[in-house]
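Annual report, structural modelling task.

Input specification for the magnesium ion complex:
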Amino acid sequence: MTGMAVRNRFTGGAGYASLTEQTIRAFLESNPEVSKALGGRSQGWSVREVGDGNLNLVFVVKGPVGGVCVKQALPYVRLVGESWPLPIDRAHFEHEALKAEAAVVSDLVPKIYVFDKVRAAIVMELLEPHIILRKGLIQGIRYPKLADDIARFAAQTLFSTSDLALPAGKKREQQSMFSLNTELCRITEDLVFTDPYRIAELNRWTSPQLDHIAAEFREDAPLKIAVQELKWMFLSRGEALLHGDLHTGSIMVTSEETRVIDPEFAFYGPMGFDLGAFMANLLLSYYSQDGHATAGDDRSDYQRWLLDTLEMFWGRFETRFLELWRQAGTGDAFVSGLFEDEAGRRALEAYRVRFMARLLQDSIGFTGAKMARRILGLAHVEDMESIKNTDVRARCERRALILARQLMVGRSSISSIAALRQFAETCRKDAL
Ligand code: SR1
Ligand code: MG
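The model returned the following structure:
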């Protein structure tokens, strides 16, 4: 690091230095709980920096008794370098989001040992033998609990932080704190909703194969209206505390367990953004599978499993969210005392059905936006990038882009998750 300014609105940035394999030992040894979890003396611990994400340092530290994972915010975007500074206080928002999530789904998030606000570092449980879900999907591994676990994560976190569950004062307090996560929101605003639709320095795509469709996206007025409408929802609709980056790289899995990590983009936004992020990444995996086919496995069974997972995810989410609303509608929105007679109960139930239909359509729109940005914008996904033959990769990406456009422009005409599935299958076959 070349002495660049370190921005942290909570500490002023003083005392921060990025951790190294040497300095991390003293830091961890100074905490009795962490030291005990690792066991032995720090000189004997193994330390590896394993971060392969876009923003942070991630260390795996192991001792004779156990291991921990340390995630430290860098003062710049790792993917780009020091030319793109970024405040390290994002670690504060991540820690706050992890606490809010642990309050309702403690089994689906990593256990936190320490949050060090000066170092902008979170020391957490080492998830082993879990792997990043995206890597499992590339290998064609099935995860039987995935749909239900992520549905439960989304239903619980979104419901419990919304006005359906919280008194207005409490919700405003939380929303106001998370509203300071401005620069991370700004990344999403630019990279998801704007840059793929204009000439932007950091955009990239599989070229020359996708040059034509990239230009079409930039000239497509109805598409740009649709994506700006989604952006406006993202900017203005603080429905619930979002994870903010719920893609398959933010989920760690074994066949029995699921953990959601990395909520540094957390803020109060439209619920459909989180739901759409997960759905988009299942669909990106679906379209990428043709690029991972081998002579012995054309991946068609796996593609069916991915779409089954998509359908099951939405179905379980809807059921769980509605159950919570019926049992625990304790917030200031839809005050339960207003609907106690038969007519009131019926009207409220009918409204809930309309609400879920609207939420599905929002989610479908965000699904499209989150797919397109991974093909035409700065940050791509390994599902596609690992397809080495660029003609094959471009074919997979083109199909995904065709669907993505339809989802953004036509989201109000897709009225069920089964219809979305069918649409995804059709786009793949039509473009074969
Ligand atoms: C510059 S950061 C690029 C992307 O990485 C994160 O995972 C977010 O999705 C962000 O948009
Ligand atoms: Mg991340």
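Residues 342-376 form the longest helix (35 residues).
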